[in-house]
Here is the input.
Amino acid sequence: MSNKTSETVTDRPQRKPGSQIIVDTLIEQGADVIFGYLGGVVLPLFDKLYDAPIKFIIPRHEQGGCHMADAYARATGKVGVVIATSGPGATNLTTGLANAMMDSVPIVAITGQVRTDLIGNDAFQEADTTGITRPITKHNEIVKDPSLLAQTIREAFYIASTGRPGPVLIDIPVDMQTTEIEVEPPTKIRLPGYRIREQGHARQISAAAQAINDAQRPVLYIGGGVIAANAAEELRSVAKKANVPVTMTLMGLGSLDQNDPLSLDMLGMHGTAYANYAVQECDLLIAVGSRFDDRVTGKLKTFAPHAKIIHIDVDPASISKNVRVDIPVVGSAKYILTEMEKELVHRDRTEWFKRINDWKKRHPLRYDTNAGTIKPQYVIEEIYRQTHGDAVVVTGVGQHQMWTAQFYKFKRPRQFITSGGLGTMGFGLPAAIGAQIACPNEIVIDIDGDSSFNMTMNELCTAVQYELPVKVCLINNNFMGMVRQWQHLFYGQRYSCSSLQNPDFAKVAEAFGAVGFTVKDKAQVPDAVKKMLAEKRPCVVDFHVDKEENVWPMVASGKSLHEMDGLDIFEMA
Amino acid sequence: MKHIISALVLNKPGVLAHVAGMFAARAFNIDSLAVGRTDDPSLSRMTIVVVGDDRVVEQVRKQLAKIVTIVKVQDFVGHDMVARDLMLITVSCPGDKRAEIQALIEMFNAKVVDISPKSVMVEVAGPETKIEAFIDSCRPYGIKNVVRTGTVAMARYGRTQAENQ
Ligand SMILES: Cc1cc2nc3c(=O)[nH]c(=O)nc-3n(C[C@H](O)[C@H](O)[C@H](O)COP(=O)(O)OP(=O)(O)OC[C@H]3O[C@@H](n4cnc5c(N)ncnc54)[C@H](O)[C@@H]3O)c2cc1C
Ligand SMILES: Cc1ncc(C[n+]2csc(CCOP(=O)(O)OP(=O)(O)O)c2C)c(N)n1
Ligand SMILES: [Mg+2]
Here is the structure.
């Protein structure tokens, strides 16, 4: 590290420029990878990063950088770090921040800002970054006193990673980076307005356990909070001990191995029939780290109509936000599941499982396997088969995302990385890059849509530059498929503006220095997947799939969860 | 139903914007909002009056508590408390109405704070109902201007103070 040497007087405390303090504190907080993009007011910071023992990844757009940090955080459970310059750099981060906010992902974003004496003067590349990002961050702060730099960064990591995780942004004017200050030892974090309750109320935990023991037809409804809490093991123990079936939200997939007989797979708008029926008929719904999103509940009035509801969540504001909860338990899933398990007893629930298994038999997920075209579900099943269900899977947003959630059976937490709450098209490729950096030894596959990929495919450059063997598997229907599906169902098949002219994606990949090929014939799918998996360079496989395939089942908006369309559509198959 | 929510917040720039933005983003309605310093220079007090059913107000309270720069939030519903508004009101006051208006001012325990040939400025403090009643009583004479602080409130027996420690 390049410390100032000239004027150091031995007994005086060490003095360093703010930029060095920032870098030192980032290292102290465990940041070993940082994503970010340059600009005038972060040059002092980048100068110090030059010598730092930190792997630095430069995306091709700050949004990409933020998604990379996001996926890095989701894949590792650590805090993702992203840096951008003021003005346009900061505004380019906003989609990424909002995405992380909605899915509760811990990120620390550092933005440069114009000199403090220029703030408010419409200076060059000035934007009110804290003002713009306030509603899309868990917390943000502008530093106007260099002696507060280190502590503000420490607090940012603490806030981002504790309680309900989320993105925290620190806006740092360039003069804070250049001013020399004395290095102070870390002080205790004191945030009088930030309190988190990790341990649930003992009486509530007992009440929850009692209700589970008493229930005839319970269902565990598991969300992203279980993954955030690293509580998959505890969940498994609870489900096994009490013998309760488990359904997972899009964000919760991987909490329980989907090959486990207790798994009901995903619930909700495009969830399985057996999960949705089970929720509608259960007498006890045990929500853990899930937030009763409208994609999950369907019509609220008739959601789980016979059920008593237990809600375990670390964020009190999540509880009773959308549904009335009978037994609220505020605290971390890990702690509460551990405590609760001690009071649970095994119940056979033969009738309940008989009913569930009957639904499973009658309404498995299916598609037309005899079709002459490439069905999107077939491609995903083939990827699943050839990766033995072990790959880290990332998606864009749309139909392909739902088919991935349905047809790839996830085994472990942090294996499936997708944009759930914001539904950000373009998340796929940058997220795959972030995940590949987090998991260099895993196979990382971005199962993407053609329109989603179009939004951020410039990040192929990044994958090539850093020699990341990410695989992009395009479910290319030449449509904004999910939009087309809605136009098909609700707008009389008037496909207004929902098809784009796509490039030849294989050629695009090659131009970027990646590998690309196109698959138009169903018979070629297995070999293409094999070739893709063997490829050591970034690779794009463009599967030309059936253009007008729809995602089933589907609970149309305003419908109750058991009113699914499309259950009988493949009876012929 | 009307709820008076009291929030102790860090005295930092952006906190008010955060609160206002959160209310707008979540479609909560603010009836009134009063902000002022406390005896501790690092803290300010916001008193927010919101109208909504219990579930909405419960969300308001929880969402406020989530904001990192908000130290403490209390909903005064069901608490024994004192709530006051302060109003400055300018009323037309021709010579022949002076006595009448003077009587009204005395009746409301209000105070004349400025006077001009044709009007008086009156300071009224008290519960919101009293303020409203005073406004209604002034209408016949002609109201020229009204400025109100919004409600401030405190639980009795110094309860809020004790809980803040
Ligand atoms: C096109 C599209 C279709 C979709 N369709 C569906 C669908 O059919 N089914 C579906 O499920 N989703 C679907 N989604 C996703 C949906 O929009 C939501 O993102 C998702 O349902 C939310 O998941 P969750 O409830 O697990 O909450 P998350 O967003 O994962 O929130 C986590 C919750 O856990 C809490 N938490 C965090 N940490 C902890 C902790 N340590 N301990 C305890 N609690 C904690 C948080 O406070 C929060 O309440 C779809 C999305 C898209 C884009
Ligand atoms: C940034 C952004 N813009 C618009 C949307 C609305 N939207 C949701 S799905 C979708 C179409 C996605 O098309 P594609 O990526 O090709 O996936 P497909 O549904 O065809 O599998 C659109 C436009 C969105 N989710 N995100
Ligand atoms: Mg498409």
Notes: The two ends of chain B are 30 Å apart (CA to CA). Chain B touches chain A at residues 9-10, 14, 17-18, 21-22, 25, 55, 58-59, 62-63, 65-72 (CB under 8 Å). Chain B has a mean pLDDT of 93. DSSP finds five helices and nine strands in chain B.
